[in-house]
Amino acid sequence: MAAELMDGKLLAQEMKEELKAQVEELKSKGITPGLGVILVGDNPASKSYVTSKEKACERIGIFSDDTRLPDTITEEELLSHVDRMNRDDKIHGILVQLPLPKHIDEDKIINAISPDKDVDGFHPVSVGRMVLGQETFLPCTPHGCLKLLERYDVETEGAEVVVIGRSNIVGKPVANLLMRKDKPGNSTVTVCHTRTKKEDLLTHTKKADIIIVASGFPNTLTADMVKDGVVVIDVGINRVEDASRERGYRLIGDADFDSLKEKCSKITPVPGGVGPMTITMLLFNTVQSARNRLS
Ligand code: GUN
């Protein structure tokens, strides 16, 4: 069986058309949605993510306040930028790109972002509300995974879901969202991670209806580990050397796409799966935050 591709690029495009219309409507009411973006240092991957986020904002009419800071910045100075954005009425969402340099306490910075502008959904108040099933900004990558499952008619109610990875950004929140009494949701969720025994990982993945791979390592999931017809969402983005490419590398996920596509019923490609959805959900949260000003 050849798998159906869950096309994140296409879904992102559809959603961005809708968001663009909402931005127009907000502008007609005197509100231009604004995103404050803080990038510290010059990590190439972070720079590339931040540039993609800013370009995406521009394309749908969101204004972005780009603040690039050297990695010698102190915690106090960084906190003062967050505070400035908290108080700026033109800014509806704040994104501090992670990771931050080692001398800066990431938790302290995230805690300083006003929960009303926490479009990344990383603040403890946002996380708490999410776990309790209350209205809040949902973290972008997990929310993007849910949108893909919904768009491609994947039944999550009663489904055996295995999440591989327990990060604060993906594993923990996506597991939480899928066990909520909601749609998509109502799944039976198992979380596997680096300390899960190999034989246990296999037991879980072999009976899973849906597998979300967010381990950060290529080939974490291979075809021999799954049953026929499984749905695979691959959150990984890994750079592997490839001299035949102009930039010297290509991107692969955490799952072995080539073997899995013969066994899955549906699978996300890398690139073009979860990646474009992450950015789109950031735009979604920023527009939502601006709309909250209307009420
Ligand atoms: N670093 C990796 N992913 C993310 C993300 O979604 N948001 C932020 N702020 N930093 C990240």
UniProtKB/TrEMBL annotation:
User: In what residue span(s) does the Tetrahydrofolate dehydrogenase/cyclohydrolase catalytic domain sit?
Assistant: 6-120
**EC number(s) of the enzyme?**
1.5.1.5, 3.5.4.9
**Domain Tetrahydrofolate dehydrogenase/cyclohydrolase NAD(P)-binding stretches:** 139-292
Q: Which reaction does it catalyse?
A: (6R)-5,10-methenyltetrahydrofolate + H2O = (6R)-10-formyltetrahydrofolate + H(+); (6R)-5,10-methylene-5,6,7,8-tetrahydrofolate + NADP(+) = (6R)-5,10-methenyltetrahydrofolate + NADPH
One cellular component term from this protein's GO annotations in UniProt:
cytosol
Q: In which pathway does it act?
A: One-carbon metabolism; tetrahydrofolate interconversion
Its GO biological process annotations read: L-histidine biosynthetic process; methionine biosynthetic process; purine nucleotide biosynthetic process; tetrahydrofolate interconversion
Q: Which InterPro entries match?
A: Aminoacid_DH-like_N_sf (IPR046346), NAD(P)-bd_dom_sf (IPR036291), THF_DH/CycHdrlase (IPR000672), THF_DH/CycHdrlase_cat_dom (IPR020630), THF_DH/CycHdrlase_CS (IPR020867), THF_DH/CycHdrlase_NAD-bd_dom (IPR020631)
Annotated NADP(+) binding sites: 165-167, 237
Question: Its domain of life?
Answer: Bacteria
Q: Which family does it belong to?
A: Belongs to the tetrahydrofolate dehydrogenase/cyclohydrolase family.
Q: How does it assemble?
A: Homodimer.
Do you know which NCBIfam families this protein is assigned to?
A: PRK14186.1 (NF010783)
PANTHER family registered for this protein in UniProt: C-1-TETRAHYDROFOLATE SYNTHASE, CYTOPLASMIC (PTHR48099:SF5), C-1-TETRAHYDROFOLATE SYNTHASE, CYTOPLASMIC-RELATED (PTHR48099)
Protein's job: Catalyzes the oxidation of 5,10-methylenetetrahydrofolate to 5,10-methenyltetrahydrofolate and then the hydrolysis of 5,10-methenyltetrahydrofolate to 10-formyltetrahydrofolate.
Q: What is this protein called?
A: Bifunctional protein FolD
Q: Which organism is it from?
A: Spirochaeta isovalerica
